[in-house]
Amino acid sequence: MSVKTNYCHLESVNNEKDRSFGTSASFPSVDWISIFDLMHQITARKTEECIRVEAISVMNLILMKTKFSSEREMFGVMALFESISRLLRKEVGSRVQEQAVHLLFLLLNCPKLLVKFCIRDEDNMEDGEVDRAQKDTSTFQGVFSGILEGLAECVICAGNGIQEMKLRRRAVIILAFIASSGKSGFEFFLSSRTPQGVNFLELVIRALAMETETETSGLAETQDICKERHLFMREVLILLNRLASNPIYATAVLGALTSSKATLGLTIDVMKRMSRKGRFYDGLKEPQESELVDLAHSFITRILSFLGECLLKG
Biological process GO annotation list (predicted)? Predict the structure, then answer.
């Protein structure tokens, strides 16, 4: 019996008890925290991809049963974030990475965990938080850097299969969630850099460029892969337009994109390709094609308007 099957059996038993016996002390609820910890231990001890995938899937199912604002914080211990930093690396396999990205997303849906994850400035912490941060600085920075590097690897992972497409899209979704979560989340998105010195804004542009190159290569692909690629492109374009249209963050975002000639050139080239209908969108239905074209056109218009304003001011 698989790990996930065992979980589902436990859940069905627990639900049956709830239906038949209510909250009777003779039939206590399943200890989900203990099961979660057990699954966490399995991901650390086992290296087989299929076992890790199932164990993390169970962890995700358990988190989805909790209230994100009041209960999920108890699961977000440092040891778990340390594990996530390892499970996001390409060496573990794309299926494990995808589940780990989902796990991180569920944890960060807890407001308190999101704040802890994004805020690095001691001026924004309370006294007790500063003391704890100072004590754990070296450990936390290592974990934080590992998660950043892992997310970066997910965004630009190698391979053009449907599994890699899903992984890239999930990684962009979590970055979009963080960037849209407020000032600290936006600063995390824009200022955090990979070991190669690239921020996530540049990274998603590069990932989008990779997909447009693949799209125009003429290689035969299944409809499912094409669909997943277009879903990924849609997520990236929505993220870019959301940031570029935000009255608070737009200047910083467009300034970051236009500060490098290489990044600016790549961005404009990609958006020009995507803002034209035609063979580039073969296999896509008209409404979906029009949406991507409109999103790309909207973003390149914002960039050119920003450049025009900069020239006038200069």
Answer: DNA damage response
Output the CA–CA distances (angstroms, integers) from residue 154 to 158, 220, 258, 281, 293, in the order listed. 9, 24, 25, 24, 25
Task: Work out the widest C-alpha separation in the chain, in whole angstroms.
Answer: 76
Q: How many CB atoms lie within 10 A of CB 104?
A: 27
Lowest mean pLDDT among 107-111, 129-133, 151-155, 183-187: 129-133
- 141 contacts: CB under 8 Å, gap ≥ 6: none
d(CA 170, CA 168): 6
Residue labelled with tokens 């969108």 = 281
Residues of the chain with pLDDT > 70, as a percent, come to 79
Predicted local confidence at residue 277, as pLDDT: 65
pLDDT, mean over the chain: 82
Which residue, among 196, 186, 195, 193, has the nearest Cα to 119 in the 3D structure? Answer: 186
Please enumerate, as own/partner, the contacts of 285-290 that have beta carbons within 8 Å and a separation of 24 or more: 288/230
CA angle in degrees (0–180, nearest 5) for 149-152-155? 155
Distance (Å) of CA 246 to CA 5, 199, 251, 252, 304: 45, 19, 9, 10, 16
Cβ-proximal residues to 164 (8 Å cutoff; 6+ apart), any chain: 94, 157, 158
- In one-letter notation, the amino acid at residue 84 is I
Instruction: Decide: 199 and 191 in contact? Cβ < 8 Å.
Output: yes
Q: Cβ distance 114 to 180 under 8 Å?
A: no
Q: Which of these, 251, 164, 257, lies nearest to 206 by C-alpha position?
A: 257
Neighbour-count burial of 137, counting CB atoms closer than 10 A to its CB (0-12 exposed, 13-18 middle, 19+ buried): exposed
What per-residue confidence (pLDDT) applies to 25? 34
Contact by Cβ (8 Å): 306, 258:
yes
Q: First CA to last CA across the chain, in angstroms?
A: 68
